[in-house]
Amino acid sequence: MPPRATGAWPLRLSIPSSPAWRGRLTRGWPAIAITCHAGCWRPRTCTPAAAPRTAPAGFARNAERTAMRILVIGAGGFIGRHVCQALIAAGHEAVPAALRPVTAWDTPQAWARALAGMDGVIYTAGCLRDQAEGVRDLLDLLHHRAPAALATACEIAGIRRLVHVSALCGGPSAYARSKQAGDVALAGRAHIVRPSLVLGPGGVSSRMLARLSRLPWLPLPSAVARCHVQPIRVEDLAEGLVRLLDAPTPHVDWTAVGPQIVTVAELIAQRRAASGRAPARLLDLPDALSRLSARLGDRLPLGPWCSTALDLLARDSTAPDACSPLGRPLRGALAGGWT
Length: 339
Known about the structure:
The chain is α/β, with parallel strands linked by helices. The protein has one domain: Rossmann fold, CATH 3.40.50. It is 34% helix and 15% strand. It is built from eleven helices and 15 strands. Strands 4-3-5-6-7-12 form a six-stranded parallel beta sheet, with helices on both faces. The protein starts with 18 loop residues before the first helix and ends in a 15-residue tail after the last strand. The relative contact order is 0.21.
């Protein structure tokens, strides 16, 4: 466990602290039940992505490096927790935001007190559903309006180091539209980071994929089974977010992907093979049944499975020619624990 940083450890949620919120504002891909074609799946050689180019000119770090106080929004979430650990490991102070209520996040004035004395900000908050605990239009609030208001507040306070975690996604879903709107609002005002599937200890997606890899029969929606992702380890993502604090302006974007392009089904098969298990039997879930289960998840939010999750995991999330600010090769998806 990393040493404590004054005022920043143990971590606190940057949103209302009820247990239900902890999962909803956790970054990373949704943990879901997925499916594939009938038959016995055997791991095969997956398409390797070109090794991410390291430290291009736009990611060059400033020569001078001093300890900084960094405000972390979403510090109680999957990515946020790892960001705080990476900040402390780099000699900085991680300060979890404690701004309440979340409905006030869309005004620059609401951020003024939280930004006092800060040298930079990393925004990792996000959600999958558009309504939670009575808050409506939550996707646009967390992914668009709040980051835009925060950027304005940073400009007023003279804070030039702002790193915003978006997502490498597309499609017509409300989630994708809110992410795209946030990217437009922050263009040129923040380092925008768009990760593919994020894997690592503490991630709900990682836990679910690990559980699926232990099943002798593997049910996956066919669109999800064929979907290509480029998983990045949460440890690499967090370290990269911290590195961007040192990147000089103008702000640069980072498409955060790992070294391997793989389908979701192949990823599960690799995990299963790595644990010494025989290939699983794959079952192809019909699209109608997949949609029905996702709509049920919309109405009964007992977990992350919902229409947004299905839409995200049915669309490719890759960037073969992406650069990395880490200055070293990134780790593979299986290079470390998932739970």
